[in-house]
Write a structure and sequence with these properties.
heterodimer, A: 289 residues, Rossmann fold, 7-stranded mixed sheet, 4-stranded antiparallel sheet, 10 helices, disordered N terminus, B: 306 residues, MetI-like fold
């Protein structure tokens, strides 16, 4: 376990690790917003010097309160917002300086799942139509699975295919979002608060699905959450962020069981019934192991 | 689709009934139409005779149902000034008004959507500021003033285009540009705000995250979702323009419904005014129905509510 800056390229030996290959390597990431030298405005530093890595088949958590820079880190790692400095490597390849066109091709390897599942689906597109569009754009990556198989793999029936987003539940919508990512066989899945908009029982099902996909496909998962019980339930390692900086990193049980940094201690104390209990067991049970 | 449109059609009939009722009541609430028509010099005998001739001596309720019955039969009455069918008068001006309205709405939509899209795509940048300023200018400049300025500068000063009246396509340019400025400005502002709002939607970030190119994201996800309020606005503007652009037609002596309305008011031809109001209401309701149908094609969520 490390306190303050994490060790770059640390390889976690999580219980679920199926492949020790590093899929994501983030080094000294910095993201700034605004600022103008001409007008003398200082930029707002949203993420400062963040470094971490994720191996294949590993779930790494990024926790912290709202505004701590978790989502900004996720968007920057996915290159959806520009990096001010630092590097992001995907499968050993530096993607920090790729053009948008080059990045579009690399996107199939790094997929995102958003907080609001209904909001992440185009309200005009049926489930089938949205999958068809992904297939049309990435013809070479999507032939490995049929729509019906894809739906089954995320625990949905094919009946859902002709439906529009407003005709399905939040849990179903999140599974559809995961299916849209899974169809590309990504190496990394960044899940930004994937359960915070869902009912507790549905949250558990979605987390179970993420764990299963990691096990079956060896996908590396970066799970962004402010909910420590969620992180504790599925993550092999965790990084705690405060004000854009990683303040503590390590194996989940270690960091959340015996936190070293005052901020982490504060977060752990705020977890209802978490002190002295095993949140892995306290989370609504759908069969986490 | 037709079955789902039935409630809308029923609503349209109610709207039309309200419009024709208001037109009927307003024509009578503004004073005795016969006295207004004949002027102060007419004798009481003459007034009574004309009133009886027009059926205005009957009880108001009888007049109202008679008027409704005529409208249902497609009879909009006879003009007091022109002594000809109001419907024939409207039909004779319809082509000119339609031509002007169509040209203005095409210019308004093309310019408005282009300006609004550029402004949204470059939000906060110079392009945005220029586009927003142009839209504000288009909304602030009174059409009659712009029309007169265009006549003075382009027609009289530069002699590039004719100053007024219908004729060749060149006669259409100045009134169409004048008439298009307000719709253009409104469409530009609506397009900008609608696209800006949609660009913030998570499904746009999601589409980008899936590796979709900017063109695909803009065309398939942003434009179609941002189109609904713009289509509704275009429909409303089309309704306004089709039912007569009074000031612009007057300034350019354009022989359309706007000019006919001005003449009907000037000569206190209350049957023609009533007919024009009914025609305007029908046009509005029909355009709104078309807008509903187009919106349901663009957005499948609306199909269930139609």
């Amino acid at each position: 376990m490390s306190v303050a800056r994490p060790v770059i390229a640390e390889i976690a030996i999580g219980v679920h690790l199926v492949n020790p290959e590093l899929v994501v390597e983030v080094h000294d990431l910095r993201v700034e917003f605004g600022g103008s030298r001409l007008r003398g405005h200082e930029p707002v530093v949203a993420v400062d010097g963040v470094s971490f890595s994720i191996a294949a088949g590993e779930i790494v958590g990024l926790v912290g309160e709202s505004g701590s820079g978790k989502s900004t880190t996720a968007m920057a790692v996915a290159r959806l917002i520009p990096l001010s400095s630092g590097t992001v490597k995907l499968g050993g390849r530096d993607i920090s300086n790729l053009t948008q066109k080059q990045m579009r091709q690399a996107r199939s390897d790094i997929q995102l799942i958003f907080q609001d599942p209904h909001g992440a689906l185009d309200p005009r597109q049926s489930v089938a139509s949205s999958l068809r569009e992904v297939r049309r754009v990435h013809t070479d990556r999507t032939n490995w699975i049929t729509d019906a198989e894809l739906m089954a793999s995320v625990g949905l029936s094919s009946d859902i295919l002709p439906r529009l987003p407003h005709e399905i539940s939040g849990g179903q919508a999140q599974r559809v979002c995961i299916a849209q990512s899974l169809i590309l066989r990504p190496r990394v899945l960044i899940a930004d608060e994937p359960t915070s908009a869902l009912d507790v029982s549905v949250q558990a099902h979605v987390l179970e699905l993420l764990s299963r996909l990691r096990d079956e496909y060896g996908i590396a998962v970066l799970l962004i959450s402010h909910d420590l019980s969620v992180v504790r339930a599925v993550c092999d390692r965790v990084h705690v962020m405060q004000l854009g900086v990683v303040v503590e990193s390590g194996e989940t049980e270690s960091v959340l069981g015996t936190p070293q940094h005052s901020y982490t201690k504060q977060l752990v104390r705020s977890l209802p019934g978490a002190r002295g209990s095993d949140a892995r067991n306290s989370f609504p049970s759908v069969g986490f192991s | 689709m037709i079955r789902s449109l039935l409630p809308r059609l029923a609503g349209a009939v109610v709207t039309l009934l309200l419009a024709v009722t208001i037109a009927f009541l307003l024509a009578r609430a503004s004073g005795d139409p016969v006295r207004q028509m004949l002027g102060d010099m007419a004798s009481q005998g003459q007034i009574e005779a004309v009133r009886a001739d027009l059926g205005l001596d009957r009880p108001l309720v009888v007049q109202y149902f008679d008027y409704l019955g005529n409208i249902v039969r497609g009879d909009l009455g006879t003009s007091l000034r022109y002594h000809t069918s109001n419907w024939d008068l409207i039909a004779s001006r319809l082509a000119a008004s339609f031509q002007l309205a169509a040209a203005a709405i095409i210019i308004g939509v093309v310019a408005g959507v282009t300006l609004g899209t550029l402004a949204a795509m470059f939000e906060g940048k110079r392009v945005d500021r220029v586009a927003v300023s142009l839209a504000l200018l288009g909304q602030s400049v009174p059409p009659f003033w712009l029309g007169i300025m265009l006549i003075v500068v382009v027609a009289v000063g530069l002699r590039w285009l004719p100053a007024g009246q219908a004729g060749s396509w060149s006669h259409l340019i100045l009134p169409a540009i004048t008439l298009s400025t307000l719709p253009m400005a409104r469409i530009a502002r609506m397009t900008r705000s609608s696209i800006t709002e949609v660009l913030e939607e998570p499904y746009v970030a999601s589409a980008r995250a899936r590796g979709f190119g900017t063109r695909r994201v803009m065309a398939r996800h942003v434009a179609r979702n941002a189109a609904i309020p713009v289509i509704t606005l275009v429909g409303l503007q089309t309704g306004v323009l089709l039912s007569g652009a009074v000031t612009v037609e007057f300034v350019f002596a354009w022989p359309g419904l706007g000019t006919l309305t001005t003449q009907a008011v000037a000569f206190r031809d209350f049957t023609l005014i009533q007919a024009l109001v009914v025609f305007g209401a029908v046009t509005f309701v029909l355009v709104n129905l078309v807008v509903d149908i187009v919106n349901s094609v663009v957005d499948p969520r609306i199909r269930g509510t139609l």
